Amino acid sequence: MLTASASVADRVEGLQLGADDYLPKPFAFRELSARVAALGRRARPAAPPVLRRAGISLDPYRREVHRDGRYVPLSRKEFAVLAELLRADGTAVSAETLLEKAWDENADPFTHAVRMTILKLRRKLGDPPVVLTEPGVGYRIR
Questions:
Q1: Per the structure, how many domains does the chain have?
Q2: Is it the case that residue 46 has pLDDT exceeding 70?
Q3: Is residue 132 located within the same domain as residue 70?
Q4: What is d(CA 88, CA 124) in angstroms, rounded to the nearest whole number?
Q5: Neighbouring C-beta atoms of residue 114, cutoff 10 Å
Q6: Staple partner for 19: which of 1, 106, 114, 116, CB 3.0–4.6 Å?
Q7: For residue 72, which of 57, 85, 84 has the smallest C-alpha distance?
Q8: Model confidence over 72-98: pLDDT tens digits?
Q9: Are residues 10 and 74 in the same domain?
Q10: Domain at 88, CATH number
Q11: What is the pLDDT of residue 11?
Q12: Which domain holds residue 29?
């Protein structure tokens, strides 16, 4: 915050409202510049959390998947489908939802792409199987 309010109560209130810093007027431009640079150094984008379930860990930031410690190379679609299944946290995800999330809006809703991607994903993840089919509902991670 850059403000004319300089009392301790004003500074405390500004920081409690969410300000990362508080600089009352009058101020030296060099100090403002140094404070902005310091805030820029500590501001880093948060890495997405690693998704884990049934021995699978999916790191969206590094775009890596491991099953029981073993690296599993996946295509972009396989990765996107697995991420959606892991985000569902054990609940079933319909093929339509997977098609909507992992493919673009031009995807044919009558395609077998989801089924084929699930088949490849099961093979790559290995035994015991972790991607289960819920007949009439969709797919889930056990």
A1: 2
A2: no
A3: yes
A4: 20
A5: 23
A6: 1
A7: 57
A8: 999 999 999 999 999 999 999 999 999
A9: no
A10: 1.10.10.10
A11: 84
A12: 2-42
